Amino acid sequence: MATTLSDMLLWLEELGLSVWIRESAYGFSLMVAVHILGLTLSVGILLWVDLRLLGLAMRRVPTEDVYRSLAPWFLAGFALMLASGLSLFAAFATAAYGNFYFRLKMAVLVLAGVNALVYHFMTERRASAESSLAAARWAGGASLVCWLAVIVAGRMMSYTMF
Amino acid sequence: MEPGLLQWLEATPLAASVGASVQVIAYLSAAHLLGFTLIMGSAIVANFRLLGVFLPACSVQEVTRPAGWAVAVGLVVSLTTGFLLFAWRATELAANGTFQLKMALLLSAAAFHFTWHRHVSRSQAAGTRRLRATGALGLVLWFALALAGCAFILLE
């Protein structure tokens, strides 16, 4: 028997964690709180790497130093976001999947990820200082715009889903 | 607060038009969260520098100066949108304990940041121990505000 997408979404909603998030007194609140605190650590800190890439702050410090010093913290923030986000998705899988802002958020998240990977594996390793400076600015600007859109779409989800 | 003033605020056309539209509330709340992310990220980065976690080899002011500006910009965005979100149900919110806690923590964190934190960041003579204590207290205050903000969204 073929498993359809809607069966998979229902299966996610029936997981123990999903039921706990929907039905316990503090499950939902706890997950949302972790998601918001994760946001301050991830996007809140990453934005300073972006501002450095754009040349708008800490210009006397090499971008590499800013990135290395902050990376463990914003990566920990993203881990919290991912764990709480996946749990919240599982709990409301059908409603989220059908939500316009959820789809928009996921699409922009992919763009933000591609932008980060392109910077990490191509721009950062390029030897020519001149061209990589312009590319770094584009990467920083694109990252800021993407994360701004992700946050707005995320907030809109909660007003259109429930 | 004066009950008459709160009721007057609720009755203003601006407050009433916010309260009449879920879409406006959603956009305001999104902008409120953007301001909050800017405040928290910048406060974390500035306090991490004082703690010696972030760029310990670089000058304190190289980090705290732009971060201080960003906290101020974030506060303008969050306070403006927050006031509009407050105005249409001012009476109810002014009596809400979690909201009062959130405002008290906001006041404490911002006052600490723009007085003591700023003073220590700019002082050439501040020793490592004083910098670290300031950074730690700053982080505690801002994260307490963030937690109160979460509680306020969820407990109502």
Explained architecture:
The complex is a heterodimer of chains A (162) and B (156). Helix content of chain A is 81%, strand content 0%. Chain A is mainly α and 162 residues long. Chain A has one domain (5-160). In chain A, helix 3 (27-53) runs antiparallel to helix 4 (63-91) and helix 3 (27-53) packs antiparallel against helix 7 (129-160). The longest helix of chain A is centred in the last third of the chain and has 32 residues, at 129-160. The model of chain A has no long low-confidence stretch (mean pLDDT 92). Chain B has 156 residues and is mainly α. Chain B has one domain. In chain B, 85% of the residues lie in helices and 0% in strands. Chain B has helices at residues 3-11, 13-19, 22-51, 60-87, 90-94, 97-122, 128-155. In chain B, helix 3 runs antiparallel to helix 7 (128-155), helix 4 runs antiparallel to helix 6 and helix 6 (97-122) packs antiparallel against helix 7 (128-155). Chain B is elongated, with a radius of gyration of 18 Å. Classes of the chains: A mainly alpha (162), B mainly alpha (156). Chains A and B meet through helix 3, helix 4 and helix 7 of A and helix 3, helix 4 and helix 7 of B.
Q: How would a crystallographer describe the biggest sheet of chain B?
A: none
Task: Kindly give the count of domains of chain A.
Answer: 1
Task: Name the average pLDDT of chain A.
Answer: 92
Overall pLDDT of chain B: 93
DSSP strand content of chain B: under 5%
**Per the principal axes of the C-alpha atoms, what is the gross shape of chain B?**
elongated
Q: Could you name the ranges of chain B where pLDDT drops below 50 across 5 or more consecutive residues? A: none
Uncertain runs of chain A: none
Number of continuous helical runs of chain B = 7
User: What's the story with the biggest beta sheet of chain A?
Assistant: none
Give the structural class of chain B: mainly alpha
Number of self-contained structural domains of chain B: 1
Can you tell me the overall shape of chain A?
A: elongated
Largest interface, chains and sizes: A-B, 33 and 37 residues
Give the helix/strand class of chain A: mainly alpha
Rg from alpha-carbon coordinates of chain B: 18 Å
What order do the SSEs of chain A take from the amino end to the carboxyl end, as H and E?
HHHHHHH
Number of helices of chain A: 7
| Beta-strand residue fraction of chain A | under 5%
- Write down the oligomeric state: heterodimer
- Based on DSSP secondary structure assignment, what is the total number of beta strands of chain A? 0
